[in-house]
Amino acid sequence: MNQPKKKSELDLGAIPFKSSKEYKTGDWGVAHPKIDHSKCTKCTLCHFFCPEGAIKVREDGYTEVDYNYCKGCGICASECPVKCIEMIMKK
Amino acid sequence: MSELSLKELAKKPDLLCPGARLCAGCDEAIIVRLVLKATRGPTIVTNATGCLEVATSSFPYTAWDVPWIHSAFENTAATASGIEAAIKAMKKRKEGPLSTFEKIDVLAFAGDGGTYDIGFQALSGAIERGHDFTYVLLDNEAYMNTGIQRSGATPFTASTTTSPAGKVISGKMETKKPIDEIIIAHGLPYFATLNAAWPLDVVKKTRKSIEIEGPTFLHAIVPCSRGWRYPAEKTIEISRLAVQTCVFPLYEVNYQNGRPIYKLSSPSLSIAKRPESKRPIEDYLKSQGRFNHLFRPEKNVKLLEQIQESVNLKWEILLDKCGF
Amino acid sequence: MGLNGDEAVAYAIKQVNPDVVAAYPITPQTIIVEKFSEYVANGLVDSEFVAVESEHSALSACVGASASGARAYTATAANGLALMWEILYIASGMRQPIVMSVVNRALSGPLNIHNDHSDSMGARDSGWIQIYCENSQEVYDSHIIAWRIAEDLNVQLPIMVCFDGFTISHTMENVYTLNDDIIKAFIGKRTFPKVSGHLGETELRLNPSCPITMGAMDLQDYYFEHKVQQHEALQMALKVITSTENEFSKYSGRNYGLVQGYKMEDAEVALIGIGSAMGTSKYVVNQLRTQGIKAGLIKIRTYRPFPKEALIEAIGDCSTIGIIEKTLSFGTTGGPLYQDIKSALYDYNKKPTIVGFVHGLGGRDTSPENLIQTYQKLIKIKDKNERISTLQYIGLRE
Predict the structure, then answer these.
(1) Which residues constitute the domain of residue A35?
(2) How far, in Å, CA of C351 to CA of C379, rounded?
(3) Domain that holds residue B106
(4) Which of B16, B316, C88, C204 is such that its CA lies 20 to 30 A from the CA of A43?
(5) Given a cut of 80, is residue A1 above it in pLDDT?
(6) Residues of A in contact with C196 (CB under 8 A)
(7) Count of domains in chain A?
């Protein structure tokens, strides 16, 4: 963890200087989704329903979870029309 | 409008970045991601104080890859007025970076507290003055950021921390303020309701509201797992139930020749066409802990009937307006 | 030209031609917005005029506009300023160089529309620069230089230009105006400080080319540092006010200073105050001088930041001082001016006798006779070598 900046190092106006992407929320949840691409129809709904934007659509049309940010809410698994997403308890 | 397909929208990078500190399963984040996917170009966002604001702008971090400003709780529409006036002034004078863009859209996000209650005056004033901006109401039906206190948007009988269900009072005894009717009565060019369970509908309505000149208003229902007391994975399911039970119908309103033209959106339209598909309000209520006292220790048939009648009446009035 | 204080403001703002003016009417500020609306209606300015639905929204719209890079102006008084309260701190915390006229009026309740300083004095700790004017000329000049002070890259803070309701706002005086070209050249374009946002270095403004986040939540980790930065910027304004006034005086021939001493060189008794009462006080000083009484006067023009050094210099060797002010600070030792001056002099080795006087609340007239009596009171105190720590009132029926 970096030391917080000093007054003299801060710009005026309290403008955030870091992207939230540097703040990983992947350890929040107790379970994480696992997508079974063999059943996936590439509907991409899980990408739209993910509150974190942690489910990306790949070039090949399949979706993929970024575990750095997934908070494990389970909406994707709950909403998948073909039930190809399973929530796996973290060890 | 080819880009407004889910396939194309999926490629558009999120302007609300990951790493925000909203609760797991937060519907606000889903709606905001969708709304931002609907932007057509340069956009400035203003945000009322609330969950969305605190969870996305915790110094030194920010989740916003758009120019974004938070000022206070009740002044979102006034802040948007100032931004819009500045854009107009600088374009007119051909001065500054804002004048270099052909069009800059202004989006305002506020919760139900910031809209129904404390921000109501500023909102009404901004709509009356006709500023060109899109106001997105993220309605989770209570003050969630301060710990689930009742607001003007809290529905009848919902239990909150300031309208708790007790031995003699069954939650909030007043009904939800009819914000849609009040906003529509301003005669603004476009109004629509949003529900994250229908992502493409959200995006299309948002794009339409952005493209229309003048003040436009989007009312999104945003279930809150903490405040409504349900498991986080049910956010979309409960959101969908709000439409299926007709407690939160999806529709839009355009003013044409001075008359409001109401139009049901397809999820609600199909219920209008097949009334038997309308689900009982109990399905919606029993899915949420905030209505537990209506079912336990024994079912409160009287209140449940009262709620169902109220939903029916409001739905019928809307159907009338939509020409059914 | 013949202008009342409000008209002088409207005329100055017309010449400045800010990008956005957002205002709400309130007596005695109303003439400013009416006059400015006429300028807009007649195409004499091309500012975006936003006739908002409250003062809270007036200042909120100014914050939104200013954050978008616009020059933003508003005007208010009394209860209107009170309604803006929350946004005062937000504007200064966000470092937005908004210019606001405060046409000083007594705060409710009970309702009163006349002049005192209870409105803006309450806002003395809001992080805004505060300048108080004595007459319409000063009002006009201050509304020009205000922009340069607020927008200075070492300052970047909002500014209130305060002047007395009715006494100045509605009283016709001869005001020397400068021509539009001089004003335009003097004001120049707004400049912006550089900041490092999360997407790179850019200017402190909302710009889709390099988005920044303004008004972030700022907790235990950084709020303290940001507040001290604000304090330092406000202190810095002392220098900037002086240098800006010096530069302006080249065009106008008028230079007011942070504080103005009047016949203080050999003064044995003096009053210190602000606003229009200073004009009457000068008249009284002249009268007393003809009677051989060594009376003096110090007008505080810049009240925030507090001009401690300039004040001490102006006091010089004067041994007995009365602070006259139109604000009661309920339940304290005196008015805010009295408290500030007394604390400024605590470490000063000469320690003059200081007596606090409150006058003119709710527009009560302070006559030359009232002021003569006040000076006489000071002379008596001086002769008896008394110390009076209880608050005195001028013109109160006790």
Answers:
(1) 27-89
(2) 17
(3) 6-321
(4) B16
(5) no
(6) 11, 15, 17
(7) 1
- Would B1 be classed as within a structural domain? no
Domain ranges of chain C: 2-187, 259-394
**pLDDT level of residue B3 (50, 70, 90 thresholds):** low
8 A C-beta contact, residue B67 and residue B96:
no
Check pLDDT > 80 for residue B227. Answer: yes
Contact C193 A17 (CB under 8 A): no
Render pLDDT for C341-361 as a digit per residue (tens, 0 to 9): 999 999 998 889 999 999 999
Instruction: Report pLDDT digits (tens) over B173-192.
Output: 999 999 999 999 999 999 99
Q: How far apart are CA B46 and CA B57, in angstroms?
A: 12
Interchain contact A59–B (C-beta under 8 A): no
DSSP secondary structure letters along C47-112: -EEEE-SSHHHHHHHHHHHHHTT--EEEEE-HHHHHHHHHHHHHHHHTT---EEEEEE-PPSSS--
| Lookup result for tokens 């409008």 | B1
When pLDDT is cut at 50, 70 and 90, the band that residue B1 belongs to is very low
The CATH number of C259-394, from 2.40.50.140, 3.30.450.40, 3.40.50.300, 3.40.50.920, is 3.40.50.920
Other Cβ atoms within 10 Å of C152 Cβ, number: 21
| Dihedral angle sign, alpha carbons of residues B186, B189, B195, B196 | negative
Given this model, what pLDDT does residue B2 score? 52
> What pLDDT, on the 0 to 100 scale, is given for residue A91?
82
Instruction: For domain C2-187, give the CATH number.
Output: 3.40.50.970
Q: How confident is the model at residue C155 (pLDDT cuts 50, 70, 90)?
A: very high
Q: Which CATH number goes with the domain that contains B92?
A: 3.40.50.970
Residue A38 falls within a domain, yes or no? yes
Of residues B75, B83, B95, nearest to C87 (C-beta): B75
d(CA B219, CA B140): 11
The pTM score is: 0.98
DSSP annotation of B290: G
Across the interface, do B81 and C52 touch by the CB < 8 Å criterion?
A: yes
Residues of chain A in contact with residue B23, where contact means CB-CB under 8 angstroms, are 71
One-letter amino acid identity for C377? Answer: K
Q: Which residue has the tokens 């400013």?
A: C32
DSSP codes joined into one string, B13-50: PPSB-S---PPTT-HHHHHHHHHHHT--S-EEEEE-SS
Do C124 and C172 touch, CB atoms closer than 8 A? Answer: no
| Beta-carbon separation of B61 and A16 below 8 A | yes
**Residue A53 to residue B10, Cβ atoms within 8 A:** no
Supply A78's token pair. Answer: 């709950």
**Where residue A56 sits, what CATH number does that domain have?**
3.30.70.20
